[in-house]
Amino acid sequence: MGSLSCCLLLAMALLGPGAAAARKCDLQGQWRNEMGSNMTLSALDAAGTFSGSYHTAVAATNKQILVSPLQGARQHPGDKGQPTFGFTVQWQFADSTTVFVGQCFVDRRGKETLETMWLLREEVPSRRDAWKATRVGTSVFTRIK
């Protein structure tokens, strides 16, 4: 009975409320994707909105890449703690805008990842060129800090 009590106490300590809380995803912080782009997300306000900055590692331009502002919102996380979110990046060095939508996931070890899909729309001279103005892709971000 003594070893059973010990195992029960150990299980309660490992699987108690603290473990569930540790698995909730927090968008605030610094993130990097598989291409080496970095972004910083501010603390969310009561409405779930946030701001931040994005420094892309890749671009289809000869201009100098500049850190660009972003604005976003998180859906209320609910009980699972793995919320959906979206944000827009206003590029400071190109005539384009990118929107990201995604979900924050936390694995069993507590590693947070942001799984996203993005649309980049660049300005084109006419409607005739609109067919080539939008790019689609995915990015996976992992927490730096």
How would you explain this protein's 3D organization?
- The relative contact order is 0.17.
- β2 and β3 (49-55) form a beta hairpin.
- It contains 2 helices and 8 strands.
- It has an 8-stranded antiparallel beta barrel.
- By secondary structure, it is mainly β.
- Mean pLDDT is 86; it is low at 6-21.
Short description:
The protein is mainly beta. It contains two helices and eight strands. Strands 1-2-3-4-5-6-7-8 form an eight-stranded antiparallel beta barrel.
Instruction: Please state the structural category.
Output: mainly beta
Number of helices: 2
From the spread of the alpha carbons, the general shape counts as: elongated
What is the CA–CA distance across the termini? 44 Å
Give the low-pLDDT segments.
Answer: 6-21
Q: For the residues shown, what is the average pLDDT?
A: 86
Radius of gyration: 20 Å
Strand content: 35-45%
Helical amount among residues, as a percent range?
10-25%
Order of helix and strand elements from N to C terminus: HHEEEEEEEE
Name the strands of the widest sheet in spatial order.
Answer: 1-2-3-4-5-6-7-8
Tell me the total number of β-strands. 8
Report on the biggest sheet. 8 strands, antiparallel, barrel
Features:
145 residues, mainly beta, 2 helices, 8 strands
Draw up the topology in text.
Blueprint: H1 2-15, H2 17-22, E1 29-33, E2 38-41, E3 49-55, E4 68-74, E5 84-90, E6 96-106, E7 112-122, E8 134-143
